[in-house]
Every structure is written in C-alpha cells, then in structure tokens.
Amino acid sequence: MSRSLRIEHLSVSYAEKQILQDLSLSISRGEMLALLGPSGCGKSTLLNTLCGFVDADQGRIWLDDEDVTAAGAQYRQMVQVFQSYALWPHLNVFQNIAYGLKVRGWSSNAIQKRVSEMLALVNLTQDMAKMAVTSLSGGQRQRVALARALAVEPSVLLLDEPLSNLDAKVRLSVRHEIKQLQRQLGFTSVIVTHDREEALVMADRIAVMNQGKIEQVSTPEQLYHHPCSAFVADFMGADNHLELNAETLIKVLQEHSATVLPSGRYAVYFRAGSAQLLTVNQVPPSVGMVLIGEVNQCVFQGESYRHGISTQQGHCYVDHSFALPEGQCVQLFVPSTALHLFASSSVH
Ligand SMILES: Nc1ncnc2c1ncn2[C@@H]1O[C@H](COP(=O)(O)OP(=O)(O)OP(=O)(O)O)[C@@H](O)[C@H]1O
C-alpha cells in the first residue's frame, strides 16, 4: 500500500567520499517526485538508500509516521524499476510478474488473477504471459518490469531512469502511460531522470540535485519560471547566459524594471524561445531587457528559426517565426518576466 515518505538530514558516503549531504525531502502519499540532476550528483545513491541497499551515515527515513532508517530492504516494501529492466531472462512474462507474489506466499489462483490484472493495466495482451521476456521489445520489457513492481503494491515505487533505454517514440508514449497509471492507482513514486522534459511531464514536483544536495524542489511550473539559482536556471534549459556588471545591466534594462541594483556582477539567464527580435526602431511591447545586435546565424528548427545574435554584451540565441538574413541589425528584447537574474556569487 502506498505511503508517504519523509527524508530528514540524510548523509551518505562511500568509503571516505561523501555523496549525499544533509538532504531533506518530503513526498506525499500518491505523489510523483522527479529527481533531476547532472551525472554523479547522487540520484541513484538516494534511491538505493531509500530502499535499504545502502546505509545512511546520518539522518532519518520515515514511511508515514514509521522510522524505517534501520529497517531491512524487505521490510520497507519499496520496489525499484531499473533502466535495464532487470527482468529474469530464464523466466517468462507471467513468471516475472508473479515473482514477488510467489515470494510473499500468494496462492496460485490469487497470483493468476493478479498477473492478469497487471498485464491489462500495462497494456500487454493476456497471450503475452507465456512469452520469453528475451523476445520482447524494450517498451514491452519495461511494461513487464512495471507490472512486476506494481503487482506487490509497493509502499513507494522507485523508478531509476526507466525510459533511458527506449527509443524516442516509445519513450514519449511510455512516459504518458506511467503518468496515467500513477494518477489512476495513486501510488507514491520517485523517478530519477536526466531528461528535464520527462521530469516536467511526469512529476507532480521536481527536486533538482547538485553535488549531493537539493538545490530546489518545486512544481514543474514554478521551477521552470522561477529557478532559485543560476544552476537551476541553466539546468532547466535557459539557453542564454550573460555575465554583466550592475552598471551595464541597469543600462540594458528599461527604466521601469531597473530597480536599484547593488554593484557587482550579475548572471542573466533567458530562454531563446522567450526572447523576441525587433527592428532597430521598434518600441518594445513591455518592460524588459533590450540589447542591440546583429544576426550572425540562422537555422531552421521546425516550429521556428533559431538565430545567433552577437551583441556587445555577449552572444545569444533567439527563436523567431521567420528567417532573418545574416548581417541584419536587430533589437533583442526579453520581457522582464522571462529574465532570471542572479548576483554572481550564486553562480556555480
Ligand atoms: N558503490 C559505490 N562505491 C563507491 N562510489 C560510488 C558507488 N556508487 C556510486 N558511487 C559514486 O557516487 C557518486 C554518485 O553516484 P550516483 O550513481 O548516485 O549518481 P547519479 O546522480 O545517479 O549519476 P548518473 O546520473 O550518472 O547515474 C559518483 O561519484 C559515483 O562514482
């Protein structure tokens, strides 16, 4: 049965190397939380510590109001789904899904019924039960792995990059299927991913990790529009980054948005898709940052054309609905709502 999960001041190290540092996080019952962060920041270590494969040096792990920090993996009833599926190659689909139920001593009739329900749940036909898992496609194997995990009604489902081995098209459909299942069944889950779009689509909240710590945990919308640090802005895909001193920044910001800025350097982040290209004399539609520049590159990317713009303050990319010729002078405008500004001391 799904339970809530609370992590308090968790620290984990391998030998002398500290991996997780004083990490705290709460996940409500029925919530899906994505752990997003660069390679090596400790995402898998956190999952392994939660399910009891790795010991914590310090801190507490709670399932509802029960402290399970010292409890064995079997007692916690968290189940992991791996990138590599981790199916038993010598067992068929039915036997794989039934595995955990058998271990828990279910009767063969109950197992039969449960496996049949699980096959339907993950969109596999009943005749697939007898197939060897080695004869299945990647998407089908991951569905079997998911069915095997959900069959035992885990307290928390831990998904470690479950879609990474699937091709792009299958990945898109399976991510929606998992989200739909999670809404339908209301299971608590933590999903590890490198892919920010996947995190945005699937998660109720996203925790961005950096070097063993949580940088920000918020809803997808909040994280996307209001990153709390340069690291998060960069990681959430703000394509453009300029380093400006306060004096230059005040000059390029229009007067309404130019509040008093303490001196020093600032990191300015914005997305190519939220900036606009205006003709040199055009009045900007709202308050924001205006840079004067020249088009030095234009590439077609489907929905729009991405333009490389060289400005005195640095090189930027801006998406525009039609192609502008190289050499054209333009105003690059970014509405203040789409600008993310950080004092450079917060830049990693
Ligand atoms: N069993 C282990 N023994 C020693 N060091 C380990 C072990 N497992 C992981 N590490 C180290 O711990 C750090 C965090 O690894 P972890 O796999 O948790 O990161 P991650 O964020 O999941 O990375 P990735 O996205 O590449 O899977 C890395 O420096 C890794 O080399």
UniProtKB/TrEMBL annotation:
Q: Which GO terms describe its molecular function?
A: ATP binding
What keywords is this UniProt entry annotated with? Answer: ATP-binding, Nucleotide-binding, Transport
Entry keyword Nucleotide-binding: yes
Domain ABC transporter, by residue range, is 5-236
InterPro entries according to UniProt: AAA+_ATPase, ABC_SmlMolc_Importer, ABC_transporter-like_ATP-bd, ABC_transporter-like_CS, P-loop_NTPase
Among its keywords, does the record have ATP-binding?
Answer: yes
Q: Which SMART domains match?
A: AAA
* TM helices/strands, residue ranges: none
Q: Which domain of life is it from?
A: Bacteria
The name of this protein is ABC transporter ATP-binding protein
The organism encoding this protein is: Celerinatantimonas yamalensis
